[in-house]
């Protein structure tokens, strides 16, 4: 594992939402930077005007902050290698494209879109793989320079060597060798003067002193081209790490739009922006995402960001595809909820209650937490379990008050006996209330489920709740007695 400070970058294109794949790339960058005492950089690759989505850049920045993946350099905070938005670096790319032309590694190409179209249909007819046929590759440099000076529309193409082969090395996959005749003369500068990814990313990675490139495996196809561009400039190569792809939950095929919509219906999402409102914690999401492609033994795998930094090891990343498993997200989220200090958890749960229109006493919330914490999978699970604690009144549905296999009249009698059992107690605590209630169950000859069920619904308004006696302990004695009395009345009138 490298120990010299890494300079790494997350380089999203602002063309959509921050999703799991991006979050994972950002996370691995962050972990390596923190592990080595290096720097984590955010670079916005926004040169593709056609695919630009307003607001996307902000969403990426907000998403990284929500995840706690704080970057050291970026468009909104600056840094010594800026600007960090590619649209602000246009001249830099043009200068470098022309440098390659001058050195014989690239050439202006004047072929019109119509000509290229004809060329492609011919290649298709002949069942050839589509490639640029090299028409402008061999123009005399003076002629090319004259046509450019005359303002003729052109792109710049990289002059891929025609002989031999290119070997590129990926940390997870080893050497990848492609014969040069199979690598196209890709466009590196478009006719509108904007660079393509192939040029812009290589130039920036070099100028920003990037030591490791984590990126999606969709770039493996053009990987040899990228390596050739760096070599043409005579620049040092970073360590390349092409990450595994994500498969849909079934493991069959890549995640699709349809699959994403299905996940939303089940209360899941692949977009960071949705995670908070679905009740997921940044800790849970980071942990989940980290392990899609990082081999770590079970039992050792619940990790805070700081623990991940400690354990992170790029040689343990795997290139095998990872199926998205939302059950694991739930698992990690619950684990992290259980690890949180009560005041921290309280602060995170409070907004769910207040957004539901409830007034929350901080003191009561802190005392509720030990009763519900074990059951929370997502933060918003606090509502079904515990919203009733903060309601000034609960009015149960009389149907719920009727105990199993009993009539309303029988249930009313039981409720009345419960009232008589609890009323004499100075406090309704677990210790004081449970023994006489158990005795009542014996006397009545009904099951504990029937008797306690009535009490539970009477006090909480619902048939599922945190442990009953512990919950009652948090409420004033009079409130409980009032609610039991109310239950008696509701049952009598049922
Ligand atoms: N802008 C590229 C993308 O979003 C970045 C790839 C890379 O990290 O080099 O796919």
Low-confidence stretches: none
- How would you describe the oligomerization state of the chains in this entry? single chain
Total helical segments = 21
CATH architecture of the largest domain: 3-Layer(aba) Sandwich
Largest sheet: 3 strands, antiparallel
Total number of β-strand segments? 11
Q: Which strand order spans the largest sheet, edge to edge or round the barrel?
A: 3-4-7
The CATH topology name of the largest domain reads Rossmann fold
pLDDT averaged over residues: 96
List the domain count as a whole number: 4
Helix content: 40-55%
Structural class: mainly alpha
Short recap of the structure:
This protein is mainly alpha-helical and 494 residues long. It has 4 domains: 89-243, 3-Layer(aba) Sandwich (Rossmann fold); 257-339, Glutamyl-trna Synthetase, Domain 2 (Glutamyl-tRNA Synthetase, domain 2, Orthogonal Bundle); 342-389, Helicase, Ruva Protein, domain 3; 398-492, Orthogonal Bundle (Arc Repressor Mutant, subunit A). The chain has helices spanning 20-36, 56-67, 90-102, 113-125, 141-149, 197-207, 223-233, 257-265, 272-275, 282-290, 305-311, 326-339, 342-355, 362-372, 382-386, 398-401, 408-422, 430-444, 448-460, 468-473, 477-492; strands at 7-10, 39-42, 106-109, 155-158, 165-170, 174-179, 187-189, 212-216, 239-243, 246-247, 322-323.
């Amino acid at each position: 594992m490298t120990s010299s400070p890494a300079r790494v970058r997350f380089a999203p294109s602002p063309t959509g939402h921050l999703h799991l794949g991006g979050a994972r790339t950002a996370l691995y960058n962050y972990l390596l930077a923190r592990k080595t005492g290096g720097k984590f950089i955010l670079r916005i690759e926004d040169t593709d005007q056609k695919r630009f989505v307003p607001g996307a850049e902000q969403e990426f920045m907000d998403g990284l902050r929500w995840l706690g993946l704080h970057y050291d350099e970026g468009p909104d905070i600056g840094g010594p290698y800026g600007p960090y938005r590619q649209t602000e670096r246009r001249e830099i790319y043009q200068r470098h494209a022309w440098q390659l032309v001058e050195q014989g590694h690239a050439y202006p190409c004047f072929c019109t879109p119509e000509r290229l179209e004809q060329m492609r249909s011919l290649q298709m007819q002949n069942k050839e793989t589509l490639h640029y046929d090299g028409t402008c590759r061999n123009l005399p440099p003076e002629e090319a320079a004259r046509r450019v000076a005359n303002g003729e529309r052109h792109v710049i193409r990289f002059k891929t060597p025609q002989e031999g082969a290119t070997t590129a090395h990926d940390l997870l996959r080893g050497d990848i060798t492609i014969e040069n005749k199979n690598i196209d003369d890709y466009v590196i500068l478009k006719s509108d003067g904007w660079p393509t990814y192939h040029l812009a990313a290589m130039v920036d990675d070099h100028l920003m002193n990037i030591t490791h490139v984590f990126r999606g495996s969709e770039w493996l196809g053009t990987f040899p081209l990228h390596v050739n561009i760096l070599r043409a400039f005579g620049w040092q190569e970073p360590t390349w790490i092409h990450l595994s792809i994500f498969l849909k939950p079934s493991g069959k095929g890549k995640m699709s739009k349809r699959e994403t919509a299905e996940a939303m219906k089940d209360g899941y999402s692949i977009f960071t922006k949705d995670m908070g409102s679905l009740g997921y914690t940044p800790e849970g999401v980071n942990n989940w995402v980290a392990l899609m492609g990082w081999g770590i033994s079970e039992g050792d795998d619940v990790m805070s960001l700081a623990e991940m930094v400690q354990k992170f090891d790029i040689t343990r990343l795997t290139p095998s595809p990872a199926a998205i498993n939302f059950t694991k997200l739930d698992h990690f989220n619950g684990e992290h909820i259980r690890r949180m200090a009560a005041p921290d958890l309280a602060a995170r749960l409070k907004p769910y209650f207040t957004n539901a229109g409830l007034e929350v006493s901080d003191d009561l919330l802190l005392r509720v937490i030990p009763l519900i914490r074990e059951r929370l999978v997502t933060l918003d699970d606090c509502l079904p379990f515990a919203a009733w604690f903060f309601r000034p009144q609960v009015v149960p549905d009389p149907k719920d008050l009727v105990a199993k296999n009993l009539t309303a009249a029988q249930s009313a009698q039981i409720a009345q006996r419960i009232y008589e059992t609890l009323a004499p107690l100075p406090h309704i605590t677990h210790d004081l209330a449970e023994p006489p209630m158990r005795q009542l169950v014996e006397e009545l000859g009904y099951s504990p489920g029937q008797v306690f069920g009535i009490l539970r619904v009477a006090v909480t308004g619902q048939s599922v709740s945190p442990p009953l006696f512990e919950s009652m302990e948090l409420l004033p004695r009079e409130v409980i007695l009032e609610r039991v009395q109310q239950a008696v009345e509701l049952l009598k009138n049922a």
